[in-house]
Known about the structure:
Elements: E1 14-18, E2 27-32, E3 36-41, E4 51-56, E5 65-66, E6 68-69, E7 78-80, E8 85-88, E9 96-99, E10 114-119, E11 128-133, E12 141-148, E13 156-165, E14 172-174, E15 183-187, E16 201-207, E17 215-222, E18 227-232, E19 241-245, E20 253-255
Parallel strand pairs: 5-10
Antiparallel strand pairs: 1-2, 2-3, 3-4, 6-7, 7-8, 8-9, 10-11, 11-12, 12-13, 14-15, 15-16, 16-17, 18-19, 19-20
Amino acid sequence: FERCENGAIPACHDNVAADMDGDGRTDVVMMSDRAGVYWYRIPPDPKTPWQAHRVGPAVHGGIDPRGVGDLDGDGDNDIVRSTGWFENADAKGTRWTWHEDIPGGSGGRFKDTTKSWVADLDRDGDNDVVLTDADIEAGDGRTHWFENADGKGRTWVRHVIAEKKGDLHTLAVADFDGDGDLDVFSGEGPLGGTGPGGKHRWYVWENADGKGGRWAEHVVNEGDRCHEGMAADVDGDGDIDICSKPWNGDLHVYLENLLKRR
């Protein structure tokens, strides 16, 4: 690999790849609490400086891993940031309107630090928002989703998935059980776990009714710290597996989903 300086913000905490100006090309949204929220247009020669567009103010973490999507139903990508969302007002990413109307966020070590995911969790045709509390002490972590009640991003209804968990510095939304709806994965990270003796636990919350109204909790790993975990079909067998690692150290864990072996 060749390292190429692109002129983006320093000390970036969150990164999300998405088309922000509607030109069909992938851009990158970045956030640093030292600089703000920006998105960058990648030029035809990506080794040259990327064009920066400021979106608005930042928190420590709150837009990744998938906090970008169409929240108001107008066909362009907006950006979730913990307690609200930035509306892509001109559909080209050059004019943004902040809406402080998602009752998420937290009072953890870094205020309002969350992991964010935009998806249609209740399968009603519009995008909702899933949040976990990150950088928070053991026992205070929550996983919840916010129903986009009017389909326009102006009315949000909070639904609890889990509470009194540890530092949930991971979020993945996928169909882990193969039943056609979206489930939620997270795991407890460096600031503490809630298992026996403070062990860290990894959870898959099953979307039991397919609409986000009932959740069944499954502990899928215990004892390993989880930080920035990812979900994908690692072994190519058609189901969703999980990979993660601690905040520091060399341990990398792969959880194989045995769904196809049943």
